[in-house]
Structure formats: structure tokens, C-alpha cells
Amino acid sequence: MEHYWDVLITCFNYYYMIRLHYKKGLLLLGVAVLLGVVALEWVLRYKFGFCDAVLTQADKDFEYVAQPNQDRKRFGNRIFTMLFPSAMKLYLPGIQSLWPGLVIPLSTVVPSLIRIVWLQQN
Q: Does 95 or 26 have the greater pLDDT score?
């Protein structure tokens, strides 16, 4: 009978040792995942410029436009927007380049609306 209790105690000791190692392993895994997420966040923010979005302002004709005189960083490159608020510089590819085969009236696409407003102002 004495041997039975020794075996039982040994089994419980192994059970608690395995459980303790399992908890330590989970704790180490949790810390490693947390450090990985923090490192990923740091790299995305400071190396690639994520979460440094261009500030926009409301416009009565075009919903939102970028505010002038901003200094931003994207993918490691500085982006300067040093335009006067009244300056107008646009690069708009043709509608067929963006959506080939799309059948919509040209008077409703943004480049046409911008052109109409620009011609009215000048």
C-alpha cells in the first residue's frame, strides 16, 4: 500500500510540474506576442508612416480636399504640401484608365466636375 501512495504522489508531482511549465509557456507566449505587436506597430508608424494621414478640410464642391502646408512622412519619404490655399494643382487620370469599360455619363465624373468649376472661376 505504501508503494501505491508513492506512485500517486509522483504522478501528482509530475502533473503540477507540467501544469507549471504550461503556465510559464503560456505567459512567455503572451509576452512574445505582445512584444511582437508593439514592434510591428512601431515599425509601421515610424518606418512606413502609417497613422500619419493627410489632414483634410471640407469643400463645398468636392466633399473633402487636403489642407495646404502639411509635412507628412509616408514609406520613409517626407511629403510636403506647401501650396497656397488658393493654388490648384491636380493630376487626374482619365476615367477609362481607372475603370475601363465603365459606362457612365462623363458629366458626372469628378474630373469633369472639377473642370467645370475651374472654368467658372477663371
A: 26
